[in-house]
Amino acid sequence: MSRLIQTRSEITESNQLHSLTESSDSRLLILDYTTHWGFFYIINNRLTIAKALQKESLVDTIVIARVDNVKKEIGAAFVKIDDSTIAFLKLSNIPERYQPVHQGSLIPVRLLSDEQKGKRIAVTAIISEKKLPKEWQYKSAYTVLYKPDNSIASFIKKTFHHIEISKILTDNEYIYNELKGIYSNLELYSDTKLSLSKLYSLKTKLNEAADSKVYLKCGGYLIINHTEALTVIDVNSGKNVASKKADKEENILSINIEAAVEAALQMKLRNITGMILIDFINMAEEENNSALINAMNDAVATDYVTVKVIDITPLGIMEITRQKIDKPLNEYIGIFQTGV
């Protein structure tokens, strides 16, 4: 067993060294799926971020909608955003300045989702004034007031601005032509015998990311369970058992620290958000709980959203919150399984 990392400075130094090593082989794969572009950030052959961009997305578009019907009993209004599309608008998402709304009212709305089978587009009337053109109220219904840049280059800049990418790889000529004048580290993969997806075993990596069980190098493992209110991650020692009683506490801390680093990666990869409870293996010494909190704080420091490590309860459960800015990975898995 490797020497136990005991102090925050040692943990930080180890993580920084690990990050420097990782950044030398960081790759962004961009693949073409039927309705989406798939983006996969891989470091040293480990998938750490997976995202999808809908090719014809209307999300964040601002349009003048016409109120079709108001249903106060369900706290919602149904609004038309074009001649034939009716969207769902919560009454709580209508600012006071537009109240009261009634059938026929014109109101600017921002699209929160694209149309899906069996599910209406969701919209909100809470919009930054900066994005509303002056005198918009003189425009007719269904006028598009703002349309976001949904290009591949824009998505990369918005989604991966916080990380270092040594190489961007795609096997799609359209994607390559879109990006070739922007990124000098772009490469077009052209091996017809082995697809880019198979070269990096993306199917296997995505299946692992959908599995509730995640194995640790030390022999332990994590079990990830989602409920409606929160996510619970259970840490198990598995086959890793100290041979001597004297080594037990040190061994548990070592397992817990490895589990903390892996849990941070899984939260980012799976985009687990909201309240997260991690049930670590109980430790007898309070200073080891402090070392574990330090390790987790360092592990989540590289996340692209806000993560707060709150505390460890007397039962050894760490409480964490993670900001939501995108869909969880499991909502994209079906898209990735139908393509490449």
Can you give a write-up of this model?
The chain has 340 residues and is α+β, with helices and mostly antiparallel strands. The protein has helices at residues 8-23, 152-159, 173-179, 196-199, 202-210, 248-270, 286-300, 333-337; strands at residues 26-32, 36-43, 46-54, 62-71, 76-80, 86-90, 106-111, 122-124, 144-146, 167-170, 186-188, 213-215, 221-226, 230-236, 274-279, 307-312, 317-322. Strands 12-13-14-15-17-16 form a 6-stranded mixed sheet, with helices on one face. Strands 3-2-1-10-11 form a 5-stranded mixed sheet, with helices on both faces. Strands 4-5-6-8-7 form a 5-stranded mixed barrel.
Give me the secondary-structure topology:
Blueprint: H1 8-23, E1 26-32, E2 36-43, E3 46-54, E4 62-71, E5 76-80, E6 86-90, E7 106-111, E8 122-124, E9 144-146, H2 152-159, E10 167-170, H3 173-179, E11 186-188, H4 196-199, H5 202-210, E12 213-215, E13 221-226, E14 230-236, H6 248-270, E15 274-279, H7 286-300, E16 307-312, E17 317-322, H8 333-337
Per DSSP, the total helix count is 8
| Low-pLDDT sequence parts | 1-23
Strand order of the largest sheet: 12-13-14-15-17-16
CA gyration radius, whole angstroms: 24 Å
**Strand proportion:** 25-35%
At a glance:
This protein is α+β, with helices and mostly antiparallel strands and 340 residues long. It has helices spanning 8-23, 152-159, 173-179, 196-199, 202-210, 248-270, 286-300, 333-337, and strands at residues 26-32, 36-43, 46-54, 62-71, 76-80, 86-90, 106-111, 122-124, 144-146, 167-170, 186-188, 213-215, 221-226, 230-236, 274-279, 307-312, 317-322. A hairpin with a 4-residue loop joins β16 (307-312) and β17.
